[in-house]
Design brief:
525 residues, alpha/beta, twelve-stranded mixed β-sheet, three-stranded mixed β-sheet, 14 helices, 17 strands, globular
Length: 525
């Protein structure tokens, strides 16, 4: 009999601003689309207005508008993309177990991926917080906030009122954390035991919040899943200004009539971006909407170091073996290839240093097929090692690292892709069919969910499903390699990761609307 059934009596919770009505299902209270701030376009967020009576929190709120129609990635993840887009996107969702004893429960705050330009709190079915809240007895919160043009356009040269326009998406997240700190106890959560957890761009947001003194008192630790990326070019600030000027020139907006920026349709902003992006990209401009270093945001760690406000907080950093890598070979082709054919394929892919790379790969991953090297990540692993090295250098002995080297069942086994661990971490492996193998699906769900739950309770991700997990230190850089058989390894792939990065070249994300023919000289796609 399924114990998860709808309960007709709806929970009502008193917040700082008024009463909210949610939904009860399977012992979990769910509150959706809760406004945590008001934020007029290109302005800092402010506290929401209080209300009288009881406000419904029965449906998900608007998400930040996208630059274009979202496209599923090359791998299957079970996407959930049917959400209303709107600029009034400062809202959050809460899954909270019934709290009849008054116990304060740990809080996990989920920050979605998509860089700083796309995504939403429920972009995928597997981002639902129900199962982790229920089975882990924690309060799960997911957050929507401003993205791309609305969250990170650099308008600072157009007036003092735009002093922080390049960081408004981060300002939204700080406002959300403040709301959680002030109100989560009413939902059974412990405001003094909050863990930030983000994947990809969400992991990058976790690292950003570690830097911000305004946010530091609102959380105790962070989990960065495949969210460490290379440092942007030294020209990033100037490039962001150039992009803004080109867009506004296209729309006929100047310093004299800059007030028009508040009312021009968002679609016009996107059209202006589309019109100028290709030309600027071919000029080697860095056209990524992301936070910019200023008086409000001290800059990304590890490039700026970790700020004193959070440098001693526990931090878990991860990446996967495959991430965005792919061999381009069909399952049938891989199955029919001999070892010699696989090695020849890799020599064509990696060039004159392929044999050196293959030797390092076999040493680091002795149980893997050599063809898995064709999918080896060269975007996140080296920055993850760099971030762990800097963070552990402060001596707190509470930095942890894992690498998921698990081969998924798809296409006769492919190294875990970008975000493949999230469905396991949230106990939603059945939402991504290929992840839910009969034996290893539940086993991996136990491992990854226990990592998150134990870390959010104690700051230590070790659990009964893994061997002893030591923290990462400069003297002993331990990575927990999660595979069919997991093992803590010391500095096992450092040489491999750096050589692969050297061969592939630095990663520079290509802006939307620029195809392969519009590739500049630096970096790769």
């Amino acid at each position: 009999m399924n114990p998860n059934v709808y309960e007709p009596v709806k929970p009502i919770v008193q917040t700082k601003y008024g009463k909210l009505r949610g939904v009860s299902y399977g012992g979990i209270h769910m509150f959706m689309g809760i406004k945590y701030a008001d934020a007029p376009r290109f302005r800092m967020p402010r506290e929401p207005e209080p209300w009288e009576g009881v406000k419904n929190a029965l449906k998900y709120g608007s998400i930040s508008p996208y630059l274009g129609a979202p496209e599923p990635p090359f791998y299957y993840r079970g996407l959930f993309l049917h959400h209303k887009q709107g600029e009034d996107c400062q809202n959050l969702n809460i899954w909270a177990p019934k709290n009849e004893t008054g116990e304060k429960k740990p809080v996990v705050v989920w920050l979605h991926g998509g860089g700083f330009s796309s995504g939403c709190s429920l972009e995928e079915y597997s981002f639902d917080g129900f199962n982790l809240a229920k089975q882990g007895n924690i309060v799960f919160v997911s957050v929507n906030h401003r993205l791309n043009i609305l969250g990170y356009m650099n308008l600072t040269e157009y007036g003092e009122e735009f002093w922080n326009s390049p960081n408004l998406g981060l300002a939204d997240l700080v406002a959300a954390l403040k709301w959680i700190h002030e109100n989560i106890a009413a939902f059974g959560g412990d405001p003094d035991n909050v863990t930030l957890c983000g994947h990809s761009g969400g992991g990058g947001k976790v690292l950003c919040l570690f830097q911000m003194e305004e946010a530091a008192s609102f959380f105790q630790r962070g989990i960065c899943l495949s969210g460490t990326t290379p440092e942007g070019p030294s020209t990033e600030w100037e490039d962001s200004l150039a992009l803004t000027k080109a867009m506004l020139d296209t729309m006929g907006i100047t310093k004299e009539n800059i007030s028009n920026i508040y009312t021009v349709p968002y679609s016009d902003l996107v059209a202006a971006y589309k019109k100028v992006a290709r030309k600027l990209w071919l000029e080697n401009r860095y056209l990524v909407f992301e936070p910019q270093k200023n008086a409000y945001f001290p800059g990304f760690p590890p490039f700026e170091g970790f700020q004193p406000c959070s440098r001693t907080k526990p931090l878990l950093i991860s990446s996967t073996l495959g991430e965005f890598g792919r061999s381009g070979l069909s399952a049938e082709k891989k199955r029919d290839m001999t070892t010699e054919e696989k090695e020849d394929f890799l020599r064509r892919k990696y060039g004159p240093r392929a044999d050196e790379l293959m030797a390092l790969f076999r040493e680091a991953f002795p149980t893997h097929d050599i063809l898995d090297l064709a999918s080896l990540d060269t975007i996140f692993r080296v920055p993850a090692l760099d971030a762990a090295d800097v963070k552990s250098g402060y001596g707190s002995n509470n930095t942890y690292m894992y690498l998921s080297a698990y081969n998924m069942a798809e296409d006769e086994g492919v190294p875990m892709w970008h975000g493949g661990d999230v469905c396991y971490a949230f106990l939603n492996e059945d939402r991504v069919y290929v992840a839910n193998e009969a034996v290893d699906g539940p086993r991996k769900a136990n491992i990854f969910s226990s990592i998150v739950l134990n870390f959010c309770r104690t700051g230590n991700p070790g659990n009964e499903y893994l061997p002893v997990w030591e923290p990462y230190t400069r003297e002993k850089p331990v990575t927990m390699v999660i595979d069919r058989q997991s093992q803590g390894k010391v500095g096992f792939d450092t040489e491999l990761a750096h050589l692969a990065l050297e061969i592939n070249g630095p990663f520079r994300p290509r802006p939307m609307f620029c195809d392969e023919s519009a590739k500049p000289q630096f970096g790769i796609e």
